[in-house]
Amino acid sequence: xxxxxxxxxxxxxxxxxxxxxxxxxxxxxxxxxxxxxxxxxxxxxxxxxxxxxxxxxxxxxxxxxxxxxxxxxxxxxxxxxxxxxxxxxxxxxxxxxxxxxxxxxxxxxxxxxxxxxxxxxxxxxxxxxxxxxxxxxxxxxxxxxxxxxxxxxxxxxxxxxxxxxxxxxxxxxxxxxxxxxxxxxxxxxxxxxxxxxxxxxxxxxxxxxxxxxxxxxxxxxxxxxxxxxxxxxxxxxxxxxxxxxxxxxxxxxxxxxxxxxxxxxxxxxxxxxxxxxxxxxxxxxxxxxxxxxxxxxxxxxxxxxxxxxxxxxxxxxxxxxxxxxxxxxxxxxxxxxxxxxxxxxxxxxxxxxxxxxxxxxxxxxxxxxxxxxxxxxxxxxxxxxxxxxxxxxxxxxxxxxxxxxxxxxxxxxxxxxxxxxxxxxxxxxxxxxxxxxxxxxxxxxxxxxxxxxxxxx
Length: 457
Hints:
Layout: H1 2-23, H2 32-35, H3 39-57, E1 59-61, E2 67-69, H4 91-112, H5 137-144, H6 165-181, E3 186-189, E4 204-209, H7 214-218, H8 232-235, H9 240-243, E5 244-255, H10 259-270, E6 273-283, E7 304-312, E8 332-336, H11 348-356, E9 362-365, E10 376-380, H12 390-395, H13 410-415
GO molecular function, one term: mRNA binding
Protein name: N(6)-adenosine-methyltransferase non-catalytic subunit METTL14
GO cellular component, one term: RNA N6-methyladenosine methyltransferase complex
């Protein structure tokens, strides 16, 4: 039975090697290993196997069960304490000399051949075949400089929903209605260190803040900046809570270091509850191997940034469908890294906010001329001009309450993801603590006799 099983395994292994040889375009299944850059290791393995076989033929078992070396004459080498020495003219010495000459000739011939050495890890990536297939994107990053997230597919907005036609149609319809209902872009050049945001004389449904952090300068050593970084104790003094409506959202870019904790403190100080973390994963397809984005004392490359999302007031996904559309986009952005020293954020963050919050009143703090966008009021010191007027902006929403919302259509409501309806069994009794017959504090088990209308012994 064991011999049959071994035979099946050998046949299966041979067939597998033949298939791999065809995929790599080689004629013989023994040649495809050279394509993987491992011919040297296979030669060593074959040499070791041949050596073991030759040694195995020179061993025999003694009557006592021990293995004893045998000479060519058939005598036990350790049977006598005196070992037979070889003279220079003996036949065995001549044979050794002859073998040594043959080996030197073989070695000289092998040196002339091109050695196949390990060059890169392409054969170890997903979708390829090797003797030990796995997804070693970390090793590929060391070899080529391409980050592992460069290989994530369908990351762009255009091709993300190619296999999901309903979501693709939903995004198209939402973009159309957002563009139709967007107000003209308005902007105000101001020094935010002295300007009070309450002077805008309006409250907004959503606010995005992109402060110039000290972390941005720290990760670009050797570069001169024409702006001074803001400390977190200065950022927290912005009156964000005063310019956001009672039911609204705040999106705060906080970098990837100490800003994660400091950003949470800012949201709490402004009256927001942190409810989401949008992560921007940066690819380097256009400049692989670029190591400039490293802090002086860092051994890791900077590849991500975080945008904390805070909520103010009470907003429920199941009941406030006129104000939010949840689960339309992802909480992760994968796009190419900006040029060295740039603080620009991906445009997709604007689309995520617009798809999620249906409020038309949007504020962007620390914006610039490149981030001006219809439907947004942009303020910051990097703007070159101003056109903001509180009276004109208020006129866009003063006719009726529905003017503050983007609105929706029947088709959008049918396509967008919704919360499943509550399905309570047993007359609406839940399964929580103290609710119904089960759970701690309920009327199951030892508390059954205290059940209203129940009975006791």
